[in-house]
């Protein structure tokens, strides 16, 4: 009985995680990334940071994490230390679907 419950919970978890990843459109996310994110994070999410301007690498991060952090920036829950509050200004104008698309795109990129 315990094995059946554990199996059911495990399957439910993976089904939910897959659904979150499947909702984003990586093609649209790539277009958004190229026009808005590439300057700092790089087109593929492999940011080339310097000690003067640390920029997080987005490539290969879990989509769930990326989505949560983008929502936090957009809502002001996460402090935006980027130049001119670029993260907050950009993200708050996007739809939730746009955020999911960006998350799906960056999650699918290989980290170098």
Architecture overview:
With about 110 residues, this protein is mostly helical. Mean pLDDT is about 85; it is low at about 15-20. The chain is built from 5 helices and no strands. It has a single domain (about 1-105), classed as Orthogonal Bundle (Cytochrome Bc1 Complex, Chain D, domain 2), CATH 1.10.760. This is C-type cytochrome. Keywords: Electron transport, Heme, Iron, Metal-binding, Respiratory chain, Signal, Transport. Pfam families: Cytochrom_C.
Helix content: 55-70%
Radius of gyration: 16 Å
Broad shape: globular
Q: Give the rounded overall mean pLDDT.
A: 84
What is the strand tally?
Answer: 0
Which stretches are low in confidence, meaning pLDDT under 50 for 5 or more residues running?
Answer: 14-22
The CATH architecture? Orthogonal Bundle
Strand content: under 5%
| Continuous helix count | 5
Superfamily at the CATH H level? Cytochrome c-like domain
How is the biggest beta sheet arranged? none
| Series of H and E elements | HHHHH
Cofactor: heme c
InterPro entries: Cyt_c-like_dom, Cyt_c-like_dom_sf, Cyt_C_IC, Cytochrome_c_Oxidase_Subunit
Domain Cytochrome c: 24-110
Protein name: C-type cytochrome
Properties at a glance:
0% strand, 112 residues, 62% helix, Cytochrome Bc1 Complex, Chain D, domain 2, mainly alpha, 5 helices
Q: Outline of this structure?
A:
The chain is mostly helical and 112 residues long. The chain contains five helices and no strands. It is globular, with a radius of gyration of 16 Å.
């Amino acid at each position: 009985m315990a094995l059946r419950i554990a199996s059911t919970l495990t399957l439910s978890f993976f089904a939910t995680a897959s659904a979150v990843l499947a909702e984003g459109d990586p093609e649209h996310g790539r277009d958004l990334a190229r026009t808005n994110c590439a300057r700092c994070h790089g087109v593929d999410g492999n940011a080339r940071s310097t000690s003067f301007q640390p920029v997080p690498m987005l490539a290969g991060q879990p989509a769930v994490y990326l989505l949560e952090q983008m929502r936090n920036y957009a809502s002001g829950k996460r402090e935006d230390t980027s130049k001119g509050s670029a993260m907050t200004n950009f993200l708050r104008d996007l739809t939730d679907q746009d955020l999911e698309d960006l998350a799906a795109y960056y999650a699918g990129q290989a980290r170098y």
